[in-house]
Amino acid sequence: MDYLIIGGSWALYFALHSFLASGRVKRSVQSSAPVIARGYRFFYSLISTVGLLWLIYLMAITPSASLFDPPGYLRYIAMILASWGVILVVTSFRHLSGWAFLGLKKEENKGLIRKGTHAYVRHPIYSGIILIVIGMALYTSTDIVVLSSACILVYLPVGIYFEEQKLIEEFGDAYRIYQAEVPAIFPKIF
What we know:
By secondary structure, the protein is mainly α. It has nine helices and no strands. It has helices spanning 2-21, 23-32, 34-38, 40-61, 72-92, 98-102, 124-139, 143-171, 173-181. The longest helix is centred in the last third of the chain and has 29 residues, at 143-171. The chain is globular, with a radius of gyration of 18 Å.
């Protein structure tokens, strides 16, 4: 039963996240309620943050069983992966406005960003999340953490698909060229 609650909660969170992030919903709010549209990004960020904190709380209070006890070296690898993930997420904001991302500042249209981490992968925040999630699952190998990690990893390609559709709509051929030149998640080694 706990697995259904955790898995269902992640599915609901991702469905709401994708729904609120969709261009169609944003346009609908802009046309029907322009006053609300001005604070839409903040509202979206607030819902996403509260939902994520709720899921973390739910994971913390749900009884879980250890799947295996990772040896010391695996815990170090897990910490390194998670640390690289956090660094990647933070550096991804170097050419973005964190305040605008949260909806606390008017978003400046800087055009398509292709510098910094975005020169190596199109979705560096998602790349960082993957590293964090894998590190978390290796470090704390409980059934609830592994289930949550699996839910996140299964959703990311769906989230990326919807994000890319929005970016193609916004930037057109410039984004299609970017797609052809720069990988989505994992940088080209050679």
